[in-house]
Amino acid sequence: MQLQSISRSVIAGIGIVSLGIAGCTQTRDFEAGTQAQSSAQTTTAQVSPNAGTQAPTRDPDVIYVPTPEPVVNEMLQIANVQSNDIVYDLGSGDGRIVIAAAKDRGARGIGIDINPERIREANQNAQKAGVTDRVEFRQQDLFETDFSEATVVTLYLLSDLNVKLRPKLLRELKPGTRIVSHAFDMGDWKPEKVVEVAGRTVYYWVVPENPPANLL
Ligand SMILES: C[S@@+](CC[C@H](N)C(=O)[O-])C[C@H]1O[C@@H](n2cnc3c(N)ncnc32)[C@H](O)[C@@H]1O
Predict the structure, then answer these.
(1) Pocket test for ligand 1, best of 7, 27, 69, 113 (most atoms within 8 A of CB)
(2) Does ligand 1 lie within 6 Å of residue 112's CB atom?
(3) What is the pLDDT of residue 51?
(4) Is the dihedral of CA 68, 71, 77, 81 positive or negative?
(5) How far is CA 184 from CA 31, 41, 212, in A?
(6) What is the end-to-end Cα distance of the chain in Å, rounded?
(7) Of 2, 29, 83, 193, which has the maximum CB count within 10 A?
(8) In 10 A of CB 50, how many CB atoms?
């Protein structure tokens, strides 16, 4: 199930409800949208592959729904990810995007997820893929994390979360950093490219030198 269809359901009148859907192990109260303090715990594939079994410090802002593999590939392709890139996936789930960036393109990858169960899975997947030397997973709140070293940022969140994150992306990322979002746009920040793949939409932006004030 796509996140878009979940959003549509909410718009259709489900209202304040925690949604549990097939394949999803997280729930999110879509209307309440918690704003509590972040966690700052870090686990890495290299050091602690089974770490991250404690409870999350707050509810995730969005449920876990994985990006299908063809869409992952397109996200890396549209951003032209190369071996000298540092790819941050904000809300990294089972780690598939940063693992693919490392395995297929030789990039370094950092996954940020608030849910320790996702971090544990991602570390296990990195081990299976043989990329623990190039990826790292951190249990953190993506709204609090320092991602300024990124050269590529990937997202599969929700439109309202993208818009909320937009000022931080534009202020903290270096000009020229590429941003790719599966399914969700950035409101008034219009993408440079939009690609359809496997029934999904992929959006692409490049951080400008001087972001317009209305986007900050
Ligand atoms: C839709 S899934 C996307 C997973 C992965 N990026 C992919 O495309 O396959 C969103 C992920 O964001 C995580 N998440 C939600 N709120 C978060 C937050 N505030 N900080 C960090 N991660 C968060 C969830 O735990 C979930 O794993």
Answers:
(1) 113
(2) yes
(3) 45
(4) negative
(5) 17, 28, 21
(6) 32
(7) 2
(8) 10
The answer as to whether 149 is a domain residue is yes
Average pLDDT over residues 40-59: 50
Residue 8 lies in a domain: no
Check pocket membership of 76 for ligand 1, CB cut-off 6 A. no
Share of the chain above pLDDT 90, in %: 73
Residue 1 lies in a domain: no
Q: How far is the CA of 195 from the centre of ligand 1 (A)?
A: 22
**The pLDDT of residue 107:** 98
User: In this predicted structure, what is the pLDDT of residue 73?
Assistant: 98
pLDDT value at position 37? 27
Gap from CA of 211 to ligand 1 centroid (Å): 26
Is 184 close to ligand 1, i.e. is its CB under 6 Å away? no
> Rounded to two decimals, what is the model's pTM?
0.82
Number of structural domains found in the chain: 1
Domain enclosing residue 65, as ranges: 36-215
